[in-house]
Each structure stands twice: as structure tokens, then as C-alpha cells.
Amino acid sequence: MRYECNNPSIIPHELVEMGLDGITTTILECKRCQLHENATNKVIMRGGKHPKVLFVGEAPGKNEDETGIPFCGRAGKILDELIDYMGLKENEYAIINTVKCRPPNNRKPTHKEILTCQPFLYAQIELLNPKIIILLGNTAEKAFCFSSLNWGKKVSTPDGKYFIKIYHPAALLYRRYLMEKQKEMIEINKDLWQKMI
Ligand code: SF4
């Protein structure tokens, strides 16, 4: 796995060898960046361990920080609505974030914080091994160093994965009209996962 990037990151083998449980333990103990200072809980993942589709969000919010569960608040309900629309069952998808600790005041994680947490993200992807990775917004895209993906347009990687960037569910909270556009992006790509189910 090597993603398009000015400064290419490679598989963090030492994390991959730990397995998902080992990575979880390491994240729980992690103090690699300042975000750990305000985190109530590390937010690691939810969903199946062999997902066909992996959703990558930005960073934990208030509800996620309190519970340790990704996308469990109002934006999470919108994501769940979309997952239902996609026809994915519980073990067919998983959800993770670019950084595992909540940034103060819901600010976006910095580029440096994203890169510091990136080995966890890449190791999770290596182990979860999804065929399709759906990036929820521009911050998630930055974690993979793509120069600029078009909304809803899939790109493939040399190892046969597909990346698709769609809107972050929080963007739809006050702009529900974007849900129609979001569903259009899903419609044009749905063959990717439907032929796998
Ligand atoms: S955001 Fe990631 S790198 Fe930073 S402290 Fe939390 S787990 Fe560690």
C-alpha cells in the first residue's frame, strides 16, 4: 500500500504485526501529539473487522469523545442513514477517523496531527483490508495526501482499492439539501460494493 503523496508513507509494519487489538492498546496509551491532553476517550473504530467498505471521518466530536464510539451523535445518524441507503449490513462496513483524539473546540486537526496519527490509520486499513474507502470530507482526504479528489469520483490504487470522497455528514446537518447530491455520488458508485455483497 502506497498512496499518492509528496512524502510517501509506507505500511507501518510494527503496528500491523500487533493486529487490531494491539493497535487499540497502543492508541489508548498514545501521547504522540498534543491532542491526547484533552481527550476523554480515544475513538478507534466501529463496525466489522472484515469490511467491504471503510468510512474515514475527520476527528472525534463531543459525543464521540464522551463515548469512545465513532459517529455516535447527530452526524452519525446522518451517516447511518446513508449506510442504510447503500444497503450495507453491520459487518460489511467499518468507520474510523484520521485522528483518534478530539481536537479542542471541535477545530480541524492540523496537518502535523494528521501525519502523527497516520501510522494508526494506515495500519488499521492494512488489517481491515476494505476494497472501498469512502473519505468523509477534505480532512480525511488529506490523510492520504491525494492532491485533490473530485467529489464522488472514484480513484483506484495499484493494490486494487477504490477511494471515493463524499461530504462529511456534519456538513449535511444544516444543509439537508446536500443529501440528494450525496445520494447521487453513492448512486454512480454503487456497483462497486453491490457486486461484492
Ligand atoms: S491523535 Fe493519534 S497520534 Fe495524537 S495522541 Fe491521539 S492517538 Fe496519538
What's the helix-strand series?
HHEEHHEHEHEEHHH
The fraction of residues assigned to DSSP E strands is 5-15%
CATH class value? Alpha Beta
User: What would you report as the Rg, rounded to the nearest angstrom?
Assistant: 16 Å
- Count, helices: 9
By CATH, the superfamily comes out as Uracil-DNA glycosylase-like domain
Q: What keywords describe this structure?
A:
197 residues; alpha/beta; Uracil-DNA Glycosylase, subunit E; 6-stranded mixed beta sheet; 9 helices; globular; binds iron/sulfur cluster
Structure description:
- The protein has 197 residues and is an alpha/beta fold.
- The protein is 38% helix and 12% strand.
- It has nine helices and six strands; from the N terminus they run H-H-E-E-H-H-E-H-E-H-E-E-H-H-H.
- It has helices spanning 13-16, 19-29, 62-67, 74-86, 111-128, 138-142, 169-172, 178-187, 191-194, and strands at residues 46-47, 53-57, 93-97, 132-136, 155-156, 162-166.
- The chain has a six-stranded mixed β-sheet, with helices on both faces.
- Strand 5 and strand 6 form a beta hairpin.
- It is globular.
- The two termini are 24 Å apart.
- The mean pLDDT is 92.
- Bound molecules: iron/sulfur cluster (SF4).
- Iron/sulfur cluster (SF4) is lined by residues 27, 30-33, 35-36, 42, 99-101, 116-117.
